[in-house]
Design brief:
The protein is of the alpha+beta class. Helix content is 47%, strand content 14%. The protein contains six helices and six strands; from the N terminus they run αβββααααββαβ. A four-stranded antiparallel beta sheet has the order 4-5-3-6. A two-stranded antiparallel ribbon has the order 1-2. It starts with 7 loop residues before the first helix and ends in a 17-residue tail after the last strand. The model has no long low-confidence stretch (mean pLDDT 84).
Length: 196
């Protein structure tokens, strides 16, 4: 719609389940049963992807070395997440070691975003999302901003369902609205509906 997104949201809608997508258009189905309990929190206002992308591209031109460090670091942590979530032979929830690796990767990815946002002046980390990040990254939680930032949403994970309820209460205490979202195993589908 905006002409500046990654297309990951469209791919997730079409394929369903949990996927990893690449800039080259590759899609890898991941194991949604491996995800720890999660929730999405909404700041109460949306961010603007187009402006954030323009500022991001300007930063890429101004400071290519720092930009490359961000891309390399982010790719490393995303690859770790994909590795954990592609364990198709494991059908149950994460074990402690996997949770440790998963939460470290989410926290480090969020840290990279925050380090990028300062010098790049993209506007990812508005005050509401800074507070979200602080609360969501205290153990036994981990979380990161979703999308272009500047408002909108963040996603938080917890080691167990009880801890997730605690995280949601913490979000409500800072003004974040938890959204009732989940993962659909099926992608988009069309049903013929009779008009009579």
């Amino acid at each position: 719609v905006q002409g500046s997104g990654s297309g990951a949201d469209v791919a997730a809608s079409v394929y369903g389940g949990l996927i990893a997508s690449t800039c080259q258009g590759g899609i890898e189905q991941l194991n949604p049963r491996r995800l720890p309990p999660f929730a999405v929190g909404y700041t109460g206002f949306g961010g603007k992807t187009g402006g954030a992308v323009a500022r991001f591209l300007g930063y890429q031109q101004r400071m290519p070395e720092h930009f490359e460090d961000f891309v390399t670091g982010s790719a490393h942590w995303v690859e770790r997440l994909v590795s954990i979530l592609s364990m198709t032979e494991v059908q149950g929830p994460m074990h402690f070691d996997d949770w440790y690796d998963f939460s470290e990767a989410i926290r480090e990815n969020q840290r990279l975003l925050e380090e990028l946002d300062g010098p790049a002046r993209i506007g990812i980390m508005v005050p509401e999302l800074k507070l979200f990040s602080f609360v969501s990254n205290l153990p036994p939680f981990c979380g990161k901003v979703s999308g272009a930032g500047g408002g909108d949403c963040g996603i938080g994970f917890a080691e167990n369902p009880h801890a997730l309820k605690t995280l949601i209460k913490k979000w409500q205490g800072i003004g974040m609205t938890p959204l009732a979202l989940g993962i659909s195993e099926n992608g988009i589908h069309v049903e013929a509906v009779s008009p009579w």
